[in-house]
Design brief:
It is built from 4 helices and no strands. It has one domain. By secondary structure, it is mainly α. The mean pLDDT is about 85.
């Protein structure tokens, strides 16, 4: 469950967004590679099985061992793990945006693509960690206020 469900939940959220958007703006194979939001959605639309397999492997090989080890860490260690995740997302977002960036579009387009990719990655990881927290169970509990009997 810890390997399949968190990536699946993240992918369902993105799939619903892409499918709803594809009703208004049809997605074609030629839409990929243009460096805009519609191109990213077209890439997800056509390549989601590959992305999902990659997400499952990442979950199993990297995320779960760190998640299991983080339970014994102090709060500072857990904060450091979250910060490291965010920094890795920023690094990868900037790197991927730079690789697909066309210099003729300008530096603001590069910054926009990097921010878009960063937000997509951070959204995925927030959903992933939230689902892991729900599955593990011990961290999310409702506290009930004790009731006193009135006479």
């Amino acid at each position: 469950m810890k390997v399949f469900l968190p990536p699946f939940a993240g992918f369902v959220v993105f799939a619903v967004i892409v499918l709803l958007q594809s009703i208004v703006f049809p997605i074609h194979l030629g839409d990929m590679g243009k460096g805009n939001l519609h191109a990213f959605m077209a890439c997800f639309y056509y390549c989601w099985p590959l992305y999902f397999i990659t997400a499952l492997l990442t979950q199993y090989v990297i995320v779960l061992p760190i998640w299991e080890a983080a339970h014994s860490w102090s709060m500072v260690g857990k904060d450091a793990a979250v910060t490291a995740t965010a920094l890795l997302c920023a690094l990868f977002a900037g790197g991927i945006a730079y690789i697909i960036w066309d210099e003729q579009t300008g530096i603001y387009h590069l910054a926009g693509m990097a921010i878009l990719m960063l937000l997509i990655q951070l959204t995925y990881w927030v959903i992933n960690f939230f689902m892991l927290g729900l599955i593990v169970g011990g961290k999310i509990k409702l506290k009930h206020k004790p009731t006193t009997a009135t006479e």
